[in-house]
Amino acid sequence: MHLLTFSLPVMWLIILVVLALAEAATINLVSIWFAAGALTALLVSLFCQNFWIQLVVFLLVSTLCLALVRPLAQKKFTPHLRPTNLDLLLGQYGVVTEDIDNLAATGQVKVDGQIWTARNEVEEPIPAGSIVQDLRIEGVKIIVRVKDSVSES
Question: Fewer beta carbons within 10 angstroms: which end of the chain, N or C?
Answer without folding.
Answer: C
